[in-house]
Amino acid sequence: MNSIAEKYIRKEALPFIFCPGCGHGIVVNSFLRVIDKLGIKENEMGLVSGIGCSSWSPVYMKFDCLHTLHGRALAQAEGLKAVNPDKKVVVFSGDGDCAGIGGNHLIHAAKRNVDMTVIMMSNYIYGMTGGQRAPTTPYGATTKTSPLGNEEHPFDMYKLVTGAGATYYARASVTHPIQLDKAIEEGIRHKGFSFIEVLSPCPTTAGRNIFNFKTPAEMYDWYEEQVAVLKPGETEAPDGRIGLGILYVDNKKEELCDVQSEKKEVAKK
């Protein structure tokens, strides 16, 4: 175990549940590097998650952790932030947990511009529950619930979340850890609703059912071919690949907890 992980990982919670080749462990390592760099202490942060492979991430870290019901992580995180406005709140979620059953909570948290950071690990499928299609599953993909091909088009998470009102949006991939670190760091620094979409390969379920990959290495090679690091100001890759980078930042919109605090002071007069 590396020195940073030694500081933050709950050894009594090991081993990780992540399958060999799963990208979620890379996300955890990236998050810990950022926390260590920013010098955030245990009592300054609360971690929240729902249900799914990605939602187990906070369980392994030495921070206060709220492990909630499927799709309810954002609602619980909003409550945590409301009573602890000075605490940094980070939500770990999957594409199914966040954009599927939790989709309504997602758009309203974005609309309210609550000061929290959401790390959504997208693997194009419901991995833990058997391989059903998710809101991000590619059109035409074969899954356990779309054996003849997915007839639904996937969400464009960038358009969905920024359209709902989020003030920070970044897209990263576990194949590009430096850019992933930057996306998480800037998301935590941002005052407002920060959303980070992380492409995280699932060799066990998506790799076998959707893409027919034989090994995790084969899947990671494919992911690297699909993405491109964007230049400043770009929101799309010019060659049609999936663009990685900080796609949107709005520092002007008021944050909900600040507005509520102002109203409380007015009500006291």
Provide the fold topology.
Elements: H1 3-8, H2 24-38, E1 45-49, E2 64-67, H3 73-83, E3 88-94, H4 95-99, H5 103-112, E4 116-122, E5 125-126, E6 132-133, H6 157-164, E7 168-173, H7 177-189, E8 193-199, H8 203-209, H9 216-226, E9 227-229, E10 242-249, H10 256-268
Parallel strand pairs: 1-2, 1-3, 3-4, 4-8, 7-8, 9-10
Antiparallel strand pairs: 5-6, 7-10
Helix pairs in contact: 2-7, 5-6
Question: Your description of this structure?
Answer:
The chain has 269 residues and is α/β, with parallel strands linked by helices. The longest helix is centred in the first third of the chain and has 15 residues, at 24-38. Helices cover 37% and strands 19% of the residues. It is globular. It contains 10 helices and 10 strands. Helix 2 (24-38) crosses helix 7 (177-189) and helix 5 crosses helix 6 (157-164).
Low-confidence stretches: none
Integer average pLDDT: 94
Tally of helical segments: 10
Q: Roughly how much helix do the residues carry, as a percent range? A: 25-40%
* Order of H and E elements: HHEEHEHHEEEHEHEHHEEH
Give the CA-based shape: globular
Structural class: alpha/beta
CA-atom Rg in angstroms: 18 Å
Number of strands: 10
Largest sheet: spatial strand order: 2-1-3-4-8-7-10-9
Hey, roughly how much beta strand do the residues contain? 15-25%
Q: What is the CA–CA distance across the termini?
A: 55 Å
Major sheet: 8 strands, mixed
